[in-house]
Amino acid sequence: MVGFKATDVPPTATVKFLGAGTAACIADLITFPLDTAKVRLQIQGENQGLVRTAANAQYRGVLGTILTMVRTEGPRSLYNGLVAGLQRQMSFASVRIGLYDSVKQFYTKGSGHAGIGSRLLAGSTTGALAVAVAQPTDVVKVRFQAQVRAGSGRRYQSTVEAYKTIAREEGIRGLWKGTSPNVARNAIVNCAELVTYDLIKDTLLKANLMTDDLPCHFTSAFGAGFCTTVIASPVDVVKTRYMNSALGQYRSAGHCALTMLRKEGLQAFYKGFMPSFLRLGSWNVVMFVTYEQLKRALMAAYGSREAPF
């Protein structure tokens, strides 16, 4: 088997908490350009009228978006908002992924068997709790990814300035803009992502199709990424549009969704689907594989420290 072997001692809540945040940051570093391309595709067309053709689209497809950004704004534009993104993952993923097993055990009252209902409840709980902790970092990340780097029309020059400017111009509520769609999105994402990963992995292991190592983690993570993208894409587009909107552009997340439907049709809710899938698929693979290995490495280090001889 490649990588660290599973230990007899299950990882502690602290190991899961720190491991999840670290693994998510590593995954973000690798897949961030895809996330930025997704945001640009999702917000494209929100300020245009009813008549719209493919000819006046600034970005076309994942690769086209990335190449356009590199050509017009430089390669660094692909990492707009990275600092806020890493801040988000360290606080966000630590809660929604790192606490998932602990919350699942709480709902099952310590039982070794966890049904689909307990897993869904645990995913929804940690997803919503993570938003409560990390929402301001998500708002700043989306604003940075959406702004064009070239020219003098940039809304924010630095991450710290973005936090201060949003709080000053829009109030504290501005930093929590889009909380409702984000709670909905992350309850859905967490359920689709973690529960699907959990179920696929359990099925593979119980059927003796794979052992608890890298191929199993890779397969489970890839499946989780696809299911998550299909289920969560509409809410993700609305969240991105609403969080990036100017003050007063939309009355609520519901108004944002209705405006999209009226002006751009149902297909608008799946804008940026391919970069979303590429990003979530690759992000899930990197994150879950790294997370599983980090848990084992940390527990192995902990075990060796407890038993020096």
TrEMBL record:
Solcar repeats: 11-106, 114-203, 212-297
Superkingdom to which the source organism belongs: Eukaryota
Ligase recorded as keyword: no
Family annotation (Gene3D superfamilies): Mitochondrial carrier domain
Assigned keywords, A-Z: Membrane, Mitochondrion, Mitochondrion inner membrane, Repeat, Transmembrane, Transmembrane helix, Transport
Cellular location(s): Mitochondrion inner membrane
KW Hydrolase (keyword) present: no
Gene Ontology terms: biological process: transmembrane transport
Topological relation to the membrane, as annotated: Multi-pass membrane protein
InterPro entries according to UniProt: MCP (IPR002067), MCP_dom_sf (IPR023395), MCP_transmembrane (IPR018108), Mito_Metabolite_Transporter (IPR050391)
GO CC annotations, alphabetized: mitochondrial inner membrane
PANTHER family, per the entry: MITOCHONDRIAL DICARBOXYLATE CARRIER-RELATED
Family listed: Belongs to the mitochondrial carrier (TC 2.A.29) family.
The name this protein goes by in its record: Mitochondrial uncoupling protein 2
Protein source organism: Dicrostonyx groenlandicus (Northern collared lemming)
